[in-house]
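FORM 12-B: Structure-to-Sequence Request
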């Protein structure tokens, strides 16, 4: 997809990749121009207006919110409800979501509302399009959602910006929403009944964060496979562990793919058999495709669940113009996203643990095929005063422990809240944030491991390595020198991490 491509929302399903592109500002968004889709949006709004004028009880329109749904609101005060809902939910705390994640939140919310079952006016959708395309992005606090009724508090920051309130990311700074809207000639919206509820009562924050986690986990699997191939090279591992015949007899698609990546990276079948004194390598090398494969196979069903969520109508009530009925239900419940993220975070933490073990193997003379202890470059008596990658092992152990600690399933911690109206909640947003944190820890562990692997290539004098190791080594050594004598490596880790996140490492196709 080119930087100038356009994602159309409203009728055709959109993908995880398209959400992430919109979040990064690498695509523009537009509303579906199909007459049927536009007619549905108008009909859904007309249905809401007609039902309200007929005096029918409609949740959040002429009733109170949440546990107050049994309270009828006097007609004179109905117009204040949308604004009040936004304002009393302005209690988000914690660090703000990144600009990219917040933009993805806008994209996911727009995709849902543009389906035409939420009773909102076209002008509201047009304003969301303008925010995305002009990069006026709400600054959303990360804490405050239990994942049902959707992401009420964080999504109130989207609704507030449309009203001209709170703060936004705009032109490289955090500024008041009112000033950013004025700079772009956008008038703040005065919400009609149900419109702020339609924005807030959905799963768009957890889903947007999950889309980011999905894409990062996918690329992390490829990096883990590349590091495993490099490890096999530098410790003279048994390449036969990755033979295609082994995986044909237990054909989980993810582990088949991981093994194929490793075989390609080590140019399997072209090299001479090497001996390291062991018939079989340790599990952190031999079983790496199986471990990576769990994450890859998890991503298969997670894609299905997330893309259903992205393209769903997940607010309440639903205004169905086909049946001409107001439907009140619980599509705001984030259970599928929560379960997907709890699953993914456990799989990613296992990758972190794997790479921590691989670094230990690499530094251990009893298992590393003759490499120096802790990859110390100095020889003879001078080497006794240097310690190489010893502290890197401590670092990755700490990172892996923290990642593994966070695998406690967030979805298991449902709590009754809001006067026992929300008495069973998903905690899907917490699960998604946990997954992002574990990805951060695991990506950092991978960066440390890659630096150690490059040091091992140096120790081998570049002998016995294959094309993936050669490319990664050349890339890293283009800016980061070998550790000839002990020195700080924190900036080396940061640089390597930046290369990975900006897609500059030569990893091969995912």
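FORM 12-B RESPONSE
SEQUENCE OUT:
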């Amino acid at each position: 997809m080119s930087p100038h491509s356009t994602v159309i929302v409203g009728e055709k399903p959109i993908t995880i990749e398209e959400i992430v592109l919109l979040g990064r500002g690498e695509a523009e968004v537009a509303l579906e121009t199909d007459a049927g889709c536009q007619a549905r949006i108008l009909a859904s709004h007309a249905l809401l207006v007609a039902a309200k004028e007929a005096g029918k009880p409609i949740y959040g329109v002429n009733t109170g919110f949440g546990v107050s749904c049994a309270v009828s609101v006097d007609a004179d005060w109905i117009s204040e409800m949308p604004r009040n809902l936004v304002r009393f939910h302005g209690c988000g705390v914690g660090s703000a979501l990144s600009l990219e994640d917040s933009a993805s939140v806008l994209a996911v919310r727009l995709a849902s509302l543009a389906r035409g079952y939420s009773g909102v006016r076209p002008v509201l959708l047009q304003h969301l399009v303008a925010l995305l395309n002009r990069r006026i992005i709400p600054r959303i606090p990360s804490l405050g959602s239990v994942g049902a009724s959707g992401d009420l508090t964080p999504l109130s920051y989207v609704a507030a910006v449309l009203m001209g309130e709170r703060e936004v990311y705009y032109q490289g700074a955090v500024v008041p929403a009112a000033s950013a809207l004025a700079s772009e000639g956008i008038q703040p919206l005065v919400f009609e009944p149900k419109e702020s509820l339609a924005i807030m009562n959905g799963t768009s924050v957890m889903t947007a964060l999950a889309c980011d986690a999905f894409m990062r986990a996918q690329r992390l699997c490829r990096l883990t496979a590349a590091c495993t191939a490099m490890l096999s090279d530098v410790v003279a591992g048994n390449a036969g562990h990755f033979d295609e015949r082994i995986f044909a007899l237990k054909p989980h698609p993810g582990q088949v793919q991981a093994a194929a990546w490793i075989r390609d990276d080590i140019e399997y079948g072209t090299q001479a058999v090497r001996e390291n004194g062991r018939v079989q390598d340790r599990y952190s090398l031999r079983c790496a495709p199986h471990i990576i494969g769990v994450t890859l196979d998890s991503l298969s069903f997670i894609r299905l669940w997330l893309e259903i969520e992205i393209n769903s109508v997940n607010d309440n009530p639903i205004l169905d113009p086909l049946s001409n009925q107001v439907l009140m239900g619980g599509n705001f419940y984030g259970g599928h996203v929560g379960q997907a993220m709890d699953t993914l975070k456990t799989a990613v933490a296992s990758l972190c643990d794997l790479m921590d073990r691989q670094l230990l193997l690499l530094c251990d003379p009893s298992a590393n095929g003759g490499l120096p202890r802790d990859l110390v470059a100095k020889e003879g008596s001078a080497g006794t005063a240097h310690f190489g990658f010893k502290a890197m092992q401590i670092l990755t152990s700490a990172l892996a422990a923290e990642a593994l600690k966070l695998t406690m399933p967030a979805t298991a911690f449902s709590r009754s809240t809001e006067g026992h109206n929300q008495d069973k909640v998903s905690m899907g947003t917490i699960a998604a944030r946990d997954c992002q944190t574990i990805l951060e820890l695991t990506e950092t562990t991978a960066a440390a491991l890659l630096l150690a692997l490059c040091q091992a290539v140096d120790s081998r004098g570049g002998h016995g390595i294959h094309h993936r190791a050669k490319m990664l080594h050349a890339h890293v050594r283009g800016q980061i020198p070998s550790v000839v004598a002990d020195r700080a490596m924190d900036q080396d880790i940061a640089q390597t991490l930046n290369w990975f996140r900006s897609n500059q490492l030569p990893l091969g196709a995912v």
